[in-house]
């Protein structure tokens, strides 16, 4: 099985900056974060026993809630 290349440190830095902006209400930053995790969300949704769409929506909502409430 082929392993993904680890995410680079600059991605972590960019995500941190985007999460700060998203907490301040920047919608574009939140969209970019969701876009970054889109593939991971789709993969995780396969393991949730509900419709694919509901699972993906729930995961996105939880990610948004986490980002907004992160301290």
Describe, in plain words, how this protein is organized in 3D.
The structure is a single chain. The chain is an all-alpha fold and 71 residues long. Helix 1 (9-23) runs antiparallel to helix 2 and helix 3 (38-45) packs across helix 4 (52-69). The model is unreliable at 1-6 (pLDDT under 50). It has helices at 9-23, 27-36, 38-45, 52-69. The chain has one domain (9-69). Residues 20-67 form the Helix-turn-helix conjugative transposon-like domain.
- Structurally, the number of domains stands at 1
Major sheet: none
Shape: globular
Cα-atom radius of gyration: 13 Å
Order of helix and strand elements from N to C terminus: HHHH
Q: Please, what is the average pLDDT?
A: 88
Q: Report the portion of residues in β strands.
A: under 5%
What is the count of DSSP helices, taking H or I runs of 4+ residues? 4
Calculate the terminal CA-CA distance, rounded to whole Å: 37 Å
Helix/sheet category: mainly alpha
Q: Classify the helix fraction into a percent range.
A: over 70%
What's the count of strands? 0
Name the poorly predicted regions.
1-6
InterPro entries: HTH_dom_conjug_TS-like
Organism: Paenibacillus tyrfis
Protein name: Helix-turn-helix conjugative transposon-like domain-containing protein
List the helices and strands and how they pair.
Blueprint: H1 9-23, H2 27-36, H3 38-45, H4 52-69
In short:
With 71 residues, this protein is mostly helical.
What structural keywords apply?
single chain; 4 helices; globular; disordered N terminus; HTH_dom_conjug_TS-like; Helix-turn-helix conjugative transposon-like domain-containing protein
């Amino acid at each position: 099985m082929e392993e993904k290349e680890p995410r680079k440190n600059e991605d972590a830095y960019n995500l941190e900056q985007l999460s700060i902006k998203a907490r301040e209400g920047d919608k574009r930053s939140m969209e970019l974060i969701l876009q970054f995790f889109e593939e991971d969300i789709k993969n995780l949704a396969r393991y949730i026993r509900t419709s694919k769409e509901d699972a993906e929506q729930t995961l996105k909502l939880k990610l948004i809630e986490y980002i907004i409430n992160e301290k």
